[in-house]
Specification:
The chain is built from 16 helices and no strands. It is mainly alpha-helical. The longest helix has 39 residues. The protein is globular and about 55 Å long. The chain starts with 7 loop residues before the first helix and ends in a 6-residue tail after the last helix.
């Protein structure tokens, strides 16, 4: 019996499936990175007890990871500019596995700090390159949506990976949680090898070209929007446990449910933000920042009621994460031929936002303003992010206008006008 003829429709469907699976493989890496980034926070007492150090001292392992992200993103992105994107992603995930395996076996506080720093190094570069690859695979009309799908791995980690790994860490020892992360990393390596295409169509650059991103004002404006605007969400999120128990009256045992709601909100935000950014990147940034401001101010007003507070926890998760695909896409747009470094720097910026938002939120609490104050501060940071965005758009239009004027003068024949 003759087989059915192969059609162009079959070929197109096969290509689409391959792309979807490749993006899913990239998101799996994001899931592992999100799990290792946030699981430390829930296991600090366990880490402190096993190493015979104080909990504040144990908290420095979180800072070591964040420092690795901030340092690693620009250095790796610039140094590996000539490397195949497929090879680079696999190598970054290998480094991720090594750092987390070293965490599992770290015998002392010093070696644990070094292991967490190494584990953080590939974080920003992985997400930056993965975003570029996803956008390349998806095509012009669906770039932000594909970026959002990769970032969704990070969001899903907050819903599933972090709670599950924390539970294992509490039950079987904190090192078990990082052992799970190692397994996720190994599965990601296998998936990337199996499903990620050669990406021969992606343009390679060089270190000097990538470093050229640092000379572009719009790159710095976009990074600052992320640092300031996203910092508002972290000012809120860092102190959400005590805010919900002391201000909202939520029983401590239900706080994990609240954190899960926040994670679900992040998943929804990535989907919505990616779809909107494919239509209008700047409009999505404006809408996201305004929504963050409104959500945080409403939270301040209703925080005294546990049920309404839980709803707003979900809403803040949606509004905050909706910014990420738009920020990542704008960086790709304004970086010109230095997209790898710019995309990686986005995650350095978000980690600065994490640290800065937490620090500023702590300052207002220490100043005696109470646990609603970080949300007020966060709303203020959202407004500041809108102001930076307004300056960026004005500067971009002014530059574009000058360029068009010069082009018109060049194109005008002599003696005309």
């Amino acid at each position: 019996m003759a087989s059915a003829p192969h059609t162009d429709a079959d070929s197109s469907a096969s290509v689409a499936r391959t792309r979807r699976v490749a993006i899913l493989a990239l998101a799996l890496g994001g899931f592992g990175i999100g799990t290792t980034e946030f699981v430390s926070m829930g296991l600090l007492p366990n880490i402190a007890g096993s190493l015979d150090i104080s909990e504040p001292t144990a908290g420095h392992v979180i800072s070591a990871y964040a420092l690795g992200v901030v340092v690693g993103a620009p250095l790796i992105a610039a140094a590996t500019a000539r490397m195949s994107r497929r090879t680079l992603l696999i190598a970054l995930m290998v480094a991720f596995v090594v750092g987390n395996a070293a965490t599992v076996f770290a015998p002392t506080y010093g070696t644990l700090m070094a292991a967490r720093f190494v584990a953080g190094l590939p974080h920003g570069a992985y997400f930056g390159v993965a975003a570029l690859v996803a956008a390349h695979l998806a095509g012009a009309g669906s770039r932000a949506k594909a970026v959002g799908q990769v970032m969704m791995g990070l969001s899903v980690a907050n819903v599933v990976g972090v709670p599950a790994a924390t539970w294992l860490g509490d039950s079987l020892g904190w090192r078990t949680a990082f052992g799970v992360v190692v397994v996720i990393g190994l599965l990601t390596i296998a998936a990337l090898i199996r499903y990620l295409p050669t990406l021969s169509g992606m343009t390679m650059t060089n270190p000097m070209t990538e470093l050229g991103a640092l000379a572009r004002p719009q790159v710095w404006f976009t990074l600052l929007i992320g640092i300031v605007g996203f910092g508002g969400m972290f000012a809120f999120y860092t102190y959400i446990h005590t805010t919900l128990t002391d201000v909202s009256g939520l029983p401590g045992g239900l706080v994990p449910i609240a954190l899960m709601l926040f994670g679900i909100g992040m998943v929804v935000g990535n989907i919505v933000g990616g779809a909107l950014a494919d239509r209008n990147v700047v409009g999505t940034l404006v809408a996201g920042l305004v929504s963050i401001v409104v959500a945080l101010l409403v939270f301040v007003a209703v925080a005294g009621n546990a049920w309404t507070a839980l709803v707003l926890v979900f809403v803040v998760g949606v509004t905050g994460s909706a910014l990420v695909p738009a920020l990542q896409t704008r960086l790709m747009d304004v970086a010109d031929d230095a997209q790898t470094l710019a995309a990686a720097l986005n995650h350095s910026a978000l980690n600065v936002a994490n640290a800065g938002g937490a620090w500023l939120g702590g300052l207002v609490i220490a100043g005696g303003f109470g646990y609603r104050a970080p949300s007020v501060l966060g709303a203020g940071l959202g407004v500041a992010g809108l102001m930076v965005l307004a300056v960026a758009v004005f500067a971009q239009r002014r530059t574009t206008g000058k360029a068009n004027s010069v082009a018109a003068e060049i194109d005008t024949p002599v003696g005309v006008g």
